[in-house]
Amino acid sequence: MASQTIWIGTRKGAFVLRSDxxxxxxxxxxxxxxxHVIHHIVQDPRSPxxxxxxxxxxxxxxxxxxxxxxxxxxxxxxxxxxxxxxADGESARAVERVFWLTPGHASQPNVWYAGTSPCGLxxxxxxxxxxxxxxxxxxxxxxxxxxxxxxxxxxPLLHSxxxxxxxxxxxxxxxxxxxVFESTDAGRDWSPLNEGCAxxxxxxxxxxxxxxxxxxxxHPLQPDRLYQQNHCGIYRLDRPERRWTRIGNAMPKxxxxxxxxxxxxxxxxxxxxxxxxxxxxxxxxxxxxxxxAVYRTSDAGRTWQRxxxxxxxxxxxxxxxxxxxxxxxxxxxxxxxxxTGGEVWASANEGDSWHCIARNLPEIYSVTC
Amino acid sequence: MxxxxxxxxxxxxxxxxxxxxxxxxxxxxxxxxxxxxxxxIRFRMIxxxxxxxxxxxxxxxxxxxxxxxxxxxxxDIVQLICALSGG
Lengths: 369, 87
Known about the structure:
The structure holds two protein chains of two kinds. Chain A is mostly beta strands.
């Protein structure tokens, strides 16, 4: 057992929770960047002293902050993600927010990727100091059709940037809306990967793109195994297959399989957790019946078990956003989620029981280990 | 030399200074001079398409600026204002 650090990104700043070795006692520090919108905080597994923050600095536009001392001090990127200057007659895109950060391949220790709104993919080769557009996606002839006019109430989002641990040139991204896309040539070209996914909000449900993945994850020990929490269900894909299987069909019908996050067990590719939300009628996007629960599968989605011990039994209308749930890498995996109501809940026993470790924070956008 | 009033959200770039002198005959020149001396400050106000960000207002004396080519005279005051709003 070891102490654990949890990074909390909120609509009003960044916070840190650090535990004792039993992960029972937690100490909250912060805020840092008070008043800034913090979408994602990611500690670099290749170099744990390095932490990057995806931020929108109040009303001052998007940027990235970097720390090389585990979050004690921060420095702004010299060249934040930005689209190229538009040519005459072209749509003039400007990054509105940096939404997602992903460390690059282990063999490329200074490479990072960023996803933005509107949908843009950016890459840094100097640990987040300078960012360049991935032209193969941002200027792809299909970019306009793939990203469409849709997206979320906060605009279209590029998220879930995944790097195959066997091959730095093999990448996946998720677009809300647009779908899942794959590149096998380091981002020079892309193709949609959405077969089998529902798109209930489109007149033709069998379209190659236009879907709404909320969160896509890849298991590091079994990189051909992908899971996806989609706007329209929970899915699994085992490559080289190209057709997703709706494993959410095995969820209880009264709960459904709608939600934002999906997280994995670092040592077992068959274990995953989701946090279902109410996707009925007008989409409240709160805990179903006001009874929050995490659901766990231990068999790659064939069955699901409810885990709600310690969570409020009634009248708790939580919303957990796509970056706001994570699993640590300890032997007995710890799980964490943050709510838009400013609470952080933790389980030190793989979801068997839960307790609240922070309250009264601003609206939580991300919870990361 | 024109004077530029710096709003509080941008003073982390100017080492706390609320007012600085800047060289230039247009607003674009002034912002370029600020960027050279205070790296990163321009992108907080102007996006990559050279548009003034939605919640930023720029005035030359009391005249609102919509065009970065607006002229600035030696004794003018350039006011940078963050129009913060919402909850």
